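Can't attach files on this board, so I'm pasting raw text. These are the components:
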Amino acid sequence: MTLKKNILALRQKKAIVEKGGGDKAIEKQVAMGKMTARDRILALLDVDSFHEYDLFVEHEERNFGMDDKVLAGDGVITGTGTIKGAPICIYAQDFTVMGGSLGLKHARKITKIMDHALRMKVPCIGINDSGGARIQEGIGALAGYGEIFYRNTMASGVIPQISVILGPCAGGAVYSPALTDFVFVVENISKMFITGPNVIETVLGEKISQEDLGGARVHAEITGNAHFYALSEMECLEQIKELVSLIPHSNQEKAAKIEPKEPNFPKNIENIIPADPKQPYDVRDVILALSDDSKFLEVQELWAANIVIGFGRMNGETVGFVANQPMYLAGVLDCDASDKAARFIRYCDAFNIPIITLEDMPGYLPGVDQEHAGVIRHGAKMLYAYSEATVPKITVILRKAYGGGYIAMNSRHLGADFMFAWPGAEIAVMGPEGAANIIFRKEIMEAEDEDAMRQQKVQEYIEKFANPFVAASKGYIDAVIEPMETRELLLHALEVSKNKDDYRPAKKHGVPPF
Amino acid sequence: MQTEKPEYVDFAVTARKYKTLLTKKYQNRKPWVNPSPYEIQSIIPGTILEVFVKEGDIVKEGAPLLILEAMKMQNRIEMPFTARIKKINVEVGVRIPKELLMIELEAVDIEE
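---
Top answer:
Structure tokens for the assembled complex are below.
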């Protein structure tokens, strides 16, 4: 009979702790339009798959009146479960328990589940909803953050790390998400900043709302800190499920293969791109016309929209797409676009995901702001990332490939395995107008009708040089192909690259232009 | 992907103009202006603690102009070269933003 009694006592004890901050605090959380930490976990994971650990962990702080404070689970829920059958580790900060503030034990619960994820080689998902460091714990809270950052770094490139910002995430807390692979934000709910509006107003006199300073949209569009942006928590959780189903669960595996499906994009691939290189189009249409089932999960859709990155499948297997987007800023490379693509390329390389590059790019963005913002340093990241990557690397030049951008966009010279070009591709050191102006400067200046001569020379240049055949004649392009053949060739190229073995000189690590 | 046709604008990259959309960040960028040596701007937001000069003064290179407290640090702003103080746009106790024109200078003949 005592066992039965003990079981009942356990159930009672669990029920109390599982309530987190209690009914009143939960009511407040819901009134803010937020789900509770536990509900979030349950909504994200497969039904009945969640198992919690460290439910009874308690803080040990004795100062500032903390000695008689009981904090359920020390403000964080940790455990394991599955998403679409795939095992994962997860933690969710519970805002109803002292504002989800991070104390040492709270942090140690997180680091414990992170250590587990790293040992077991499964993805780690962190749901952030916390007022920040638990000030009463002082240095203990700082130690906690530091121990989390250290593990984020150790796990980087080994297991996928996903951060979900479903509430405030301020001060030191922001750096764990920043170190992870993917950050999810939700409109009106996510707030991320180093120093909040109050501090900024006190110190600098600048008035700004939390939303305008570090809301979801700001991080999705302006800072680039967020990778996925949703309008509701439920939409956000669906995005996470989709991502988890597309990526490998450690650097020792490939992503799960699914039944391949032919694309079903309504537009003929030949008709997507205008022949006039000055006319824009949406390069995502080309991706949809090439990818299995015409599906594409775009990453960082709103930030640096002049380059498109994301995951799709080819023959049932995950690939990463990197594509210039002529619809925005003519598809130029700039500081942000280089940053965005470089990190994605490194992610794909770390996790055995082949990279398909679709190129239509007029060059680097000219301007004082770009030069002074360090476009040299940022642009170099992309060269580094492509050169360093050992996964299969395939490029299709759709239209323009000029100058330094041609080199940067996974050219043969940086180690591309396959280089294809559509027949209308213009591969040249610069745009025909610029090149003609320089090469034929004398002829143009001496001509009676300068404009007519310029036009004639530009045309000459286009015919002679701004085409794929010069590069093909040197073997820099492996094949000039018809748009309709592209998918078949990509599938073949991926197939024959399956056992790619590419070694790099032994080193501790490189020194990329961070 | 998009349903209605967006409003494309001309966008020059080298010698060619492309039809495209502009990002918010690009639209909001500040055009670069050559800073004038006769304009002393704040390089950090803060509070003016002290002003040592007044309009019309001829001040020698290296002499203190004002103290700008920022990030709990008292920054001494010095005269970049010998010149006359044309206009002072700040006063003690005022909180100022970054890149505010604090003091305007004008050239003086060395003999003066």
